[in-house]
Amino acid sequence: MTAVEPRPDLADLERPALESALDARGHKRFHARQIFRWIYKHGVTDIDAMTDLSRELRATLSRDFALTTPALAHRDISADGTQKFLLRLADGRYIESVFIPDTPANTFCISTQVGCAMACAFCLTGKMGLVRNLTAGEIAGQVRVLAGALDMRDKKFNIVLMGMGEPLHNYDETMRALRILADEHGFGLSARRITLSSVGLLPALERLAREPVMPNLAISLHAPTDLQRGELVPINKKYGVAEIIAACKRFPLNRRSRITFEYVLLAGVNDSPQDARKLAKLVAGVKSKVNLIPLNAAAGIPFERPSDEAIDRFAKIVADHGVTVSVRKSRGRDIRAACGQLIVEGPKKSAAQQLAVVM
Ligand code: SAH
């Protein structure tokens, strides 16, 4: 018996790959541009709706390709205007994506995995374990769905890869999604508008430094020493603080850009004046800025958010060392859309089963 290959998905294809696929079927390569415009600019989810393609071409496409789009299962709107989207994937699994208005730009916070394997001690997504990687089509598909639901196809927006998952742990699909989003016949999103946030998986970070579509880089640092960071970010035992800082120093930055170091502030854990001084000295040699994220507390997370005074004191010490520092305003906490609060529970697998996938 021969296994039936699943049909390639138009949503997964970069334009050059689509051009080759059309060519191989005796169709003109330029139709790829039209197809991209339909999918990304007009938000079409059905091949038959691509009305400037010939019937014959639409029939070929429908026979040989799928076109899969995440389904909008639920939408929450926060008092501060933040919106959280629960999306159902083709296999019935769920992910979350968040729209954050005016920060100052409009920003889509996008997921790269169902769950996450990194298990950072303060993050709810980490509690899920990794269920599976998203495909490029599912990553870029979140942008299609949000841009459509928010009527923002023709508007400018930023993308942050700060939803569920560790983007560098799903490297190839994430980069393919960025190339799809950057395509001039699709969203035409400039790499300057994209920020990738990572715990710092070193080999992937070295690869990222050579990418054609190079996003801005944010590193989840969270502590100035290996001893402290190892407790919070388990992967630090493999890729330590000094190595990450060295990789950041080597990272190619264009004239105006800087690396962002994210630092979740946890009361009594990493928020002392001494920690602030160590942090400032650590990042001093990197063209960077520090973004402090006061913990978004949740049931099951064994940490507390520091007082406003402790946050201000920490920020001031870092700033006094000449490092640019900002405190991230928490958005959408009332709808559990804030950093580290994305978790999807469904009638799928138990937490233990999910964890077993990671082990
Ligand atoms: N896996 C990537 C991107 C996801 S999270 C990364 O780790 O960078 C985006 C940011 O939110 C990260 O800096 C993450 O550490 C932070 N975060 C996670 N849980 C949080 C929480 N409970 N409160 C505040 N920030 C949190």
Structure annotation, total helices: 12
What integer is the average pLDDT?
Answer: 93
Radius of gyration: 21 Å
**Structural class, judged by helices and strands?**
alpha/beta
Distinct small-molecule ligands in the complex = S-adenosyl-L-homocysteine
How does the overall form come out from the CA principal axes?
elongated
How would a textbook summarize the main sheet? 10 strands, mixed
The N- and C-terminal alpha carbons lie at a distance of 34 Å
User: How would you spell out the order of helices and strands?
Assistant: HHHEEEEEHEHEHEHEHHEHEHEH
The total strand number stands at 12
In percent, how helical is the residue content? 25-40%
- Residue ranges: pLDDT <50 for 5 or more in a row? 346-359
The amount of beta strand, in percent, is: 15-25%
Kindly report the spatial arrangement of strands forming the biggest sheet. 1-2-3-4-7-8-9-10-11-12
List keywords for this structure.
359 residues, alpha/beta, ten-stranded mixed beta sheet, two-stranded antiparallel ribbon, 12 helices, 12 strands, binds S-adenosyl-L-homocysteine
Task: Describe the secondary-structure layout.
Layout: H1 15-24, H2 31-41, H3 55-64, E1 71-77, E2 83-88, E3 94-100, E4 107-109, E5 113-115, H4 124-128, E6 130-133, H5 136-149, E7 158-161, H6 171-182, E8 194-198, H7 202-208, E9 216-220, H8 226-232, H9 241-250, E10 259-265, H10 273-283, E11 288-294, H11 308-320, E12 324-327, H12 351-358
Parallel strand pairs: 4-7, 7-8, 8-9, 9-10, 10-11, 11-12
Antiparallel strand pairs: 1-2, 2-3, 3-4, 5-6
The protein binds S-adenosyl-L-homocysteine.
